[in-house]
């Protein structure tokens, strides 16, 4: 794709059906759990993207056989039964937060020395809370530059077990990492959760994937969890549902254009919390049709809302795009933690909306958007896939919207613009 992407407005409401690729969140969790399992696991419906590719490459570097067939969206994993084969490895994770956090915990269960690093933005993303939690369990692990961010060096002698505590205020991925690896410990692990947990639905994904492989946890209290040593059992065939965060862009296309878009493969009971973005659109005035194996959003006149998006923060940028076409302001609240994502997403939202001539109020954990006349603009994406995909939606209604660095979508959705074009029935 070229260095920029000119979005062409559609001539009418967007109508059609689309199936996004498999969930990144489920794919990377399933890869970790299948790697620890006993026996061979076949994963289907998997996402093929940069985030999953670096995970697969890293598992192979650790001596765990992962065979990926992108054409059939399938992966075969030869589980290590809780014992990492390689005693040393250097793992490069680009800017994949799930990968580096999950793999740091996985390496802590090994025997040897491992270094995990990534690109310049990754070296600004926090991981100290996970490092501290692993250290409390007796693991020799540290952020090499003393910044609380990667690179991370793990000198492992197996995961001892014991008691630890972890903050939930920055990312739920730290707790997910500990939970998935805890069954491979030498003795039970008790985890106390400090602070209010952000993005709680992602923990449900973690627990759901673990349960599919035969492992459950004990909740001693609401914030105290215990995991017994045990071996994951292979899941002969584990099918990964479409990515609900990716689906939000197509639901938003219906909302913005007054069309009707159906997403196949997802329903209200999906494992991913981001499916609840449809409830936000419903509050704004859209009509939602919930099927057994699909969901349809019918666009209607939109009204601005005040919404806490802590639990579905990966769709905050999608809502920012929709908010431009509502009657009245929209406030997206309780999402301060997204400043630590691929970019400072609150600042990026505010900056790019202002670039389009929109009035925005930004606080430490919120952004309020006041709809107005939208000016043509080239949207900077900050190497953030969600900035590119969400702000491209504005161009469906407004001429002159150009997306800089559209290739950043390879992180989670390499064929996003192709799918958007097909849905709109024309080259954009």
From TrEMBL:
CDD domains: EPSP_synthase (cd01556)
Residues that, per the record, bind 3-phosphoshikimate: 24-25, 29, 171-173, 199, 314, 341
Keywords: Amino-acid biosynthesis, Aromatic amino acid biosynthesis, Cytoplasm, Transferase
Molecular functions per Gene Ontology: 3-phosphoshikimate 1-carboxyvinyltransferase activity
EC number in record: 2.5.1.19
Pfam family, one: EPSP_synthase
SUPFAM superfamilies cross-referenced by the UniProt entry: EPT/RTPC-like
Catalytic activity reported: 3-phosphoshikimate + phosphoenolpyruvate = 5-O-(1-carboxyvinyl)-3-phosphoshikimate + phosphate
Cell location: Cytoplasm
Any one Gene Ontology cellular component term annotated for this protein: cytoplasm
Residues in coiled coil: none
UniProt enzyme class: transferase
Record's keyword annotation contains Transferase: yes
Pathway terms, separated by semicolons: Metabolic intermediate biosynthesis; chorismate biosynthesis; chorismate from D-erythrose 4-phosphate and phosphoenolpyruvate: step 6/7
GO BP: amino acid biosynthetic process; aromatic amino acid family biosynthetic process; chorismate biosynthetic process
Region described as Disordered: 1-21
NCBIfam families hit by this protein: aroA
Quaternary structure, from the entry: Monomer.
Protein function: Catalyzes the transfer of the enolpyruvyl moiety of phosphoenolpyruvate (PEP) to the 5-hydroxyl of shikimate-3-phosphate (S3P) to produce enolpyruvyl shikimate-3-phosphate and inorganic phosphate.
Family statement: Belongs to the EPSP synthase family.
Protein name: 3-phosphoshikimate 1-carboxyvinyltransferase
Organism: Gimesia fumaroli
Lineage: Bacteria, Pseudomonadati, Planctomycetota, Planctomycetia, Planctomycetales
Name of the gene: aroA
